[in-house]
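Key result, reporting period 2: structure in, sequence out.
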């Protein structure tokens, strides 16, 4: 096990009706709130009215900014920063999914920064301060409710970059599984593929003697695989959503990766798809992950066989680890199919035109600073192109 430093301070308030506590929860932390949300689902479901009622009851002033889209845009972040400065906002409440939370975090670090907030994403500048962010989660997927990360798309340059700082971890995250009942089917699948990927990126490693986090990853994956088909079949299954929702948070709060070298190649490759084609992050991951596994499993066949037996329920001879490993990957594909997820780049509406460009961007080769991605196997741009080609 590697050395590590783990600090994950987000307070998670979980359960039925918890969104109605938001005013009281924020009161010790806020005087004027920016209420940030997406394209309107919170108005259709009635959540908006509940949040407004709770803020009013607690006597908290607020202004609002809606309009966040999936793959959240830099232009709205800049608008939010201007608004928040003018209104002297001291807390941001994100009501939505990863896109709204990430947009909120971007606004939060942009408010006290004198330059353009894209500098953080583009140049990786360290931040000294950020306005605190809290969350009411409406889709379990990105794990942004407990992470210090934000991912923003710059629509002018077609770049999608992530940025992370402990200062961006939400103060309070409210999770009521009842709020997930209204999710469209395809968003359920995307969310599941994303949270599973957050575990895979940490799980598949060459680090030895990490039994505890191996087991935590495997349990979290099994919990998702058991419960996700239940919510797809019955989106009002509270108990199954509770398991999937909590798993999504555990998948990305950092714990599962402690003491292990991590991978993150699939995320790097996916962000290129989203940047150019605006595909849903989880949809891109569902296509890329089995192909990546097929491309890299020989680097550590034992780990992939362990995944196959402990997570995918493969029973096979330990004398033939390779067949066991490959059967695990095949079953993962079947699971994604069962979750009605896209299987190929074609399903995502992506043709061959930009594959090489995306492979070169993912690895930095397009900018004359190639730096291979991934931990299980170091992937140069040609490897990334090979993986994209496996997804056609
Ligand atoms: O915008 P509205 O109208 O709210 O509709 C949203 C949106 O269209 C809808 N939705 C959300 N909750 C709903 C609902 N519809 C009905 N009922 C509800 N309860 O779902 C759509 C997707 O929302 P979005 O916020 O985009 O989903 P998700 O949580 O999957 O977030 C994806 C973003 O997170 C980033 C991704 O790259 C992507 O941009 N990620 C952020 C991470 C982080 N900050 O730690 C890590 C991840 O790896 C990921 O990269
Ligand atoms: Zn992700």
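The corresponding designed sequence is given below.
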């Amino acid at each position: 096990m590697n050395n590590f430093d783990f600090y994950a301070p987000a307070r998670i308030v979980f359960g039925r009706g918890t969104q109605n506590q938001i005013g009281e929860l924020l009161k010790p932390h806020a005087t004027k709130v920016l209420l940030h949300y997406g394209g309107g689902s919170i108005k259709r479901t009635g959540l908006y009215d509940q949040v407004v009622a709770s803020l009013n009851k607690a006597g908290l002033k607020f202004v609002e900014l809606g309009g966040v889209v999936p793959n959240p845009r830099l232009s709205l972040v800049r608008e939010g920063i201007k608004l928040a400065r003018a209104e002297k906002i001291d807390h941001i409440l994100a009501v939505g999914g990863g896109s709204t939370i990430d947009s909120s975090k971007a606004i939060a670090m942009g408010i006290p920064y004198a330059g353009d907030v894209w500098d953080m994403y583009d140049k990786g500048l360290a931040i000294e301060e950020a306005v605190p962010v809290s969350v009411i989660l409406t889709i379990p997927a990105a794990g942004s409710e407990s992470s210090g990360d934000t991912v923003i798309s710059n629509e002018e340059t077609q770049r999608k970059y992530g940025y992370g700082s402990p200062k961006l971890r939400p103060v309070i995250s409210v999770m009521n599984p009842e709020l997930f009942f209204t999710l469209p089917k395809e968003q359920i699948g995307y969310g599941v593929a994303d949270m599973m990927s957050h575990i895979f990126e940490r799980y598949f490693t060459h680090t030895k003697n990490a039994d505890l986090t191996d087991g935590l990853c495997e349990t979290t994956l099994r919990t998702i695989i058991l419960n996700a088909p239940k919510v797809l079949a019955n989106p009002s299954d509270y108990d199954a959503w509770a398991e999937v929702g909590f798993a999504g948070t555990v998948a990305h709060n950092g714990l599962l990766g402690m003491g292990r070298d991590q991978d993150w190649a699939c995320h790097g490759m996916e962000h290129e798809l989203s940047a150019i084609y605006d595909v849903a992050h989880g949809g891109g991951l569902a296509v890329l992950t089995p192909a990546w596994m097929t491309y890299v499993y020989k680097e550590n066949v034992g780990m992939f066989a362990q995944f196959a037996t402990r997570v995918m329920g493969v029973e096979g001879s330990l004398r033939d680890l390779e067949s066991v490993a490959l059967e695990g990957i095949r079953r993962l594909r079947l699971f994604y199919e069962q979750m009605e997820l896209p299987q190929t780049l074609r399903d995502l509406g992506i043709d061959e035109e930009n594959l090489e460009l995306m492979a070169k961007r993912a690895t930095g080769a397009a900018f004359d600073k190639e730096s291979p991605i991934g931990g299980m196997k170091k992937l140069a741009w040609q490897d990334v192109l090979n993986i994209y080609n496996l997804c056609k």
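Residues 142, 194, 197-198, 267, 281 surround zinc ion (ligand 2) (CB under 6 Å). The longest strand covers residues 32-37. This case is discussed further under Risks and Mitigation.
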